[in-house]
Specification:
This protein has 490 residues and is α+β, with helices and mostly antiparallel strands. The protein is 45% helix and 10% strand. Strand 1 and strand 2 form a beta hairpin. It binds zinc ion (3 copies).
Length: 490
């Protein structure tokens, strides 16, 4: 397969400018601004010599204190998880009702869709996933059983009649006590697609403006673009849904560019009056690209970890295959959303770096399910109310089986969290509290942190032996020299 991308040679200078690492000062300014707009004055992102950037405490943090709630730059629910959980496509809150969540899941199961762990792609196993889990600490059993629904599970499950499932979905069947777990109503996509749903008009509009208007497959999209998008999405679903995230990045950069251009045209009218200097279109594209320029490091096919079943002598051909896969995906995306003004964004170099950014920096997106809360609540009811309610709800729990507690799962990129460096004895962790019911990353401290101290998290299971830790961290491209590693180094 030909992986020479014409755009790469035609726009070599522009691509080089987009990929040039920002100066330490530019990095500092960007994060100062970001922390200010988020009113997050207790943290500071600093660029310190060889270490690169890191997050530092601007005050003393007590043990167990909230350090950061980080709004994602871009994220997506795993395609396979969409059958299990209906969430807002922008903030990832659960929406609809307890009945709708249960009915919808059983409906998809009755059609033969089987719940999965949602994370079927090997590369994503290496995202910064280890720390973040559903809000409550699950028992060992639950933890293991979440997701994967094997044949034996299916046999154990009670099958409910279709009309019962339907009445759950259409709101005719109301479960006892479900009013204690009300969820926001489902708002449809303004473009008329059936794929995305929202918790509010403001989430629908924000998603539309940031990326979905280019990627929507609804009736308002023109036919040729819709068909091209469909091919791109099918390819992503069949290979790796990291491409869907990359598409969101490209789309949001194009849309940001367009809005900058629009306000720039307005400014120009003013400038002409005052004889000011014009700013070229390309510098607007650089501006739109800035949040991404802070994050990428390496090309995907260079940083992806070698799967266990690929020996080192096949490494070159494996990496070439990955590059070809990215090229194929890029061509499909280009057919769907190409924009002449933003042509350099459709180069393989840029695409490779964007996907590489997800490969190296992602945190799993996890939001605990209210359906789990609901059944726990029923289980905790006092006697004899519990028995009464249980008589009604038991068949639904039996129909759901172990999957009743499946949480919303996806992948996202969080700009501030991604600046946090690794330590094998971290002082903070990504951990959702009971009240954290949306897609933001939540970082809390594990011990007292003094002012000026660096805030660290663990990218891996820090309880593993030294050798295994270093092997896992090698996938992130560094050798860990944390205190624990220095002590344990043989
Ligand atoms: Zn929302
Ligand atoms: Zn849509
Ligand atoms: Zn270490």
């Amino acid at each position: 397969m030909e992986v020479d991308c014409a755009i790469d040679s035609e726009y070599a200078d522009e691509i080089a400018a987009l990929l040039a690492p920002p100066s330490p000062q530019a990095v500092q300014d960007y994060f100062d601004q970001l922390l200010r707009t988020r009113k997050c004055c207790s943290l500071k992102v600093e660029h310190r010599g060889q270490q690169g950037k890191g997050v530092y405490a601007n005050k003393v943090f007590e043990e167990g204190e909230l350090v950061l709630k980080d709004q994602m730059l871009v994220g997506a629910q795993h395609s396979s998880n969409k059958m299990d959980c209906l969430v807002c496509s922008h903030c990832f809150r659960f929406i609809g009702s307890i009945e709708l969540q249960i009915g919808r899941k059983l409906y998809f199961e009755s059609l033969g869709f089987v719940a999965t762990e949602g994370n079927s792609h090997r590369n994503q196993a290496f995202s910064h996933a280890s720390g973040e889990s559903c809000s409550r600490e699950m028992s060992e059993d639950e933890d293991k059983d979440t997701g994967a629904c094997s044949d034996t599970d299916m046999k154990d499950k009670l099958i409910l009649p279709n009309d019962v499932i339907e009445s759950l979905m259409d709101g005719h069947l109301v479960l006892p006590c479900s009013e204690k777990f009300t969820l926001p109503s489902v708002i449809s996509c303004p473009g008329g697609c059936e794929e995305e749903h929202y918790c509010s008009i403001s989430c629908a509009e924000a998603d539309w403006e940031t990326s979905h208007s280019l990627l929507c497959m609804g009736v308002k999209q023109d036919d040729s673009r819709r068909n091209a998008l469909l091919k791109f999405i099918e390819h992503s679903n069949g290979t790796n849904d990291i491409f869907l995230l990359a598409a969101k990045v490209i789309s949001s950069t194009i849309l940001k560019y367009k809005s900058l251009k629009l306000s720039h045209v307005e400014d120009q009218k003013q400038l002409k009056k005052s004889n000011g200097v014009d700013q070229s279109s390309f510098s607007l594209l650089l501006d739109a690209w800035k949040p991404i320029s802070m994050a990428f490091k390496r090309r995907w096919w260079e940083c992806i970890s070698l799967p266990d079943d690929v020996g080192s002598k096949n490494e070159t051909s494996f990496r070439m295959q990955i590059k070809e896969l990215a090229f194929k995906s890029l061509q499909l995306l280009k057919k769907a959303i190409f924009d002449k003004d933003c042509a350099p964004l459709f180069s393989l170099e840029i695409y490779g770096h964007v996907i590489g950014m997800f490969e190296l920096n992602n945190l799993d997106l996890v939001v605990a399910s209210p359906v789990e809360d609901y059944f726990i609540f029923i289980d905790d009811l006092p006697h004899p109310e519990k028995e009464e309610v249980d008589r009604i709800t038991r068949p639904f729990l039996d129909a759901l089986g172990d999957d009743y507690s499946i949480c919303c799962q996806g992948t996202a990129f969080f700009p501030i969290q991604s600046c946090m460096n690794h330590s094998c004895s971290p002082n903070a962790k990504a951990f959702k509290r009971d009240e954290d019911r949306d897609g933001q990353a939540v970082i809390t401290t594990m011990r007292l942190i003094s002012e000026g101290e660096e805030i660290t998290i663990s990218y891996i299971d820090e309880d593993l032996p030294y050798e295994e830790r270093q092997a896992l961290l090698a996938d992130y491209g560094f050798v860990c020299k944390c205190q624990k590693c220095v002590v344990e180094e043989p």
